[in-house]
Design a protein that fits this description.
heterodimer; A: mainly beta; six-stranded mixed β-sheet; four-stranded antiparallel β-sheet; B: mainly beta
Chain lengths: 118, 110
Amino acid sequence: EVQLVESGGGLVKPGGSLRLSCAASGFPFANALMTWVRQFPGKGLEWIGRIKTKSNGEAAAYGAAVKDRVTISRDDSKNTLYLEMNSLKTEDTGIYYCTTGDSGFAHWGQGALVTVSS
Amino acid sequence: QSVLTQPPSASGTPGQRVTISCSGGASNIGKNWVYWYQQLPGTAPKLLIYRNYQRPSGVPDRFSGSKSGTSASLAISGLRSEDEADYYCVTWDDSLYVVLFGGGTKLTVL
């Protein structure tokens, strides 16, 4: 069974940074393109970015709203996906999901709640 | 304001057929596959339709997707109370080089 478990969410002050992890199991993680998606309190969903496999250079791509503040990385030896974001703003508050795939996101984690507030 | 436009709400009675539209442009829906997701309250989104009209295993054939030009649609026939959820369309944009989400449609089963 495919499992994706996010961790690292919580309360962060504006201007601060966060590092989310996504532990994957039940599928060949090293062969999977992985994506981060977030959901705002008003329910809208936004693509944060994705990272390709090692054989594809672990190429990362990011959404316009975050691309200067975010880094997506992966550790295939640990079956773990990471999201690092800095210069956090109150509007970054939301639920952060890791997913498998490029646009057809077949599997989702339960999400990590990130609250940016002073 | 999403690049992909969906109606904010839709409704129907049990047994009815409802359609949710998703309008985009030449660089997104016009050139790429469209995906649909269902999000039940308090849960992560679930893939409902991929590559315009394909259904993952386990998704009932009451759900169907279509695409024409720069628009796509999700149809739900034989509406059931458990279909009450938010629905999102998704596609890639060749000009913006990002994945786009529609604003979402909240479906109410009356």
